[in-house]
């Protein structure tokens, strides 16, 4: 008996071919915030480690920022738009849920009729999307995939709530993922803790986000170490092999706590883009990676460990080779 | 473990996590107002207390622990 369903040829591995990002024009310092709310530079720097962040202007919409970042990632990959078969757009800040914006972003980039959809896994969205992109390529369902993380968190933040307004910000980052003989994206270590679904939420009847800061901080600094270890174990590498550690930029103290617990080598470069960018949710990891590559702190071929985590609560991490 | 031993152990944690001088960690002191411990450092202290004393401090209990004395009483009551 022969199978009636045929499957496409598979690829041995997938890797990131190009990265791109978009930072909104408007730079907002802690002193700027102190003009309008009861806070100050010292308070913000000690608690979350943020010195400044970018806030999108009206014309810097989710679609415009996604197109800008996606276009740069495409250019960096060297691929023409028609070689992309799938667009996965991660965002948690769409104010209108219908339609999703993945198809429109693909259209604007001149990608002809790809599979395209939005994915909401909160601040873990980029790593979820990257895992799905890698799997779609390895399974033969797509030749190349464009992954975008884009947020306008200022749209869903109460500007007078100092527990969130000093933290959340806007921006976009993107990656073009394609096939490779040597795997450049390790297996994803993902999961969720849905019992804590209210820890980061836009509650019914509200239009802005609230966050149980202590609970999230505790979860991030105690429960996620095992996920980072799992991502490395699945990829067959250890902390000493990691050149770049780029966790979601939620709070500098969480970044430092994770770094301390994992025991990397002294040479490991740790992403601290939150200092300049604030917390940009699904955009934070590609923003951090492009910043490190542009500054020369990280280089092509480096082995990076990434981890996204946030509302849901969700988390996902993997080991990557930087393009 | 006696209250004195708990206080000594807690003072060690406070010194390590938040740089509090051990002699200052007396029961009447408020973490926030007297010892300048912020809300995230409270989480780190809670985690360290759990490891050191084998007690569980749920998130909603953490908000009720305002002073060093509150913490000592909580540990005393809940230790195995």
Q: Can you describe this structure?
A:
The complex is a heterodimer of chains A (323) and B (80). Chain A is an alpha/beta fold and 323 residues long. Chain A has two domains: 168 residues, 3-Layer(aba) Sandwich (Peroxisomal Thiolase, Chain A, domain 1); 133 residues, Peroxisomal Thiolase, Chain A, domain 1. Chain A is globular, with a radius of gyration of 19 Å. The mean pLDDT of chain A is 96. By secondary structure, chain B is an all-alpha fold. Chain B has one domain: Orthogonal Bundle (Non-ribosomal Peptide Synthetase Peptidyl Carrier Protein, Chain A), CATH 1.10.1200.10. Chain B has four helices and no strands. At the A-B interface, helix 7 of A face helix 2 of B.
Set out the fold topology.
The complex is a heterodimer of chains A (323) and B (80).
Chain A lengths: L12 E10 L3 E4 H7 L4 H7 L4 E4 L6 H16 L8 E5 L11 H7 L6 E5 L5 H15 L5 E8 L9 H4 L4 E11 L8 E4 L7 E2 L8 E2 L1 H10 L2 H11 L8 E4 L4 H11 L6 E2 L3 H4 L6 H12 L7 E8 L3 E8 L2
Parallel strand pairs in A: 4-5, 4-6, 11-12, 11-13
Antiparallel strand pairs in A: 1-7, 2-3, 6-7, 8-14, 9-10, 13-14
Helix pairs in contact in A: 3-4
Chain B lengths: L2 H16 L20 H15 L5 H4 L5 H11 L2
Helix pairs in contact in B: 1-2, 1-4
Shape verdict of chain A:
globular
What is the global morphology of chain B? Answer: globular
Low-confidence stretches of chain A: none
Instruction: State the end-to-end distance of chain B.
Output: 10 Å
CATH class of chain B: Mainly Alpha
Give the tally of β-strands of chain A.
14
> What oligomeric assembly is this protein in?
heterodimer
Topology of chain B as a string of helices (H) and strands (E): HHHH
- Strand-residue proportion of chain B: under 5%
Sum this structure up briefly.
Chain A has eleven helices and 14 strands. With 323 residues, chain A is an alpha/beta fold.
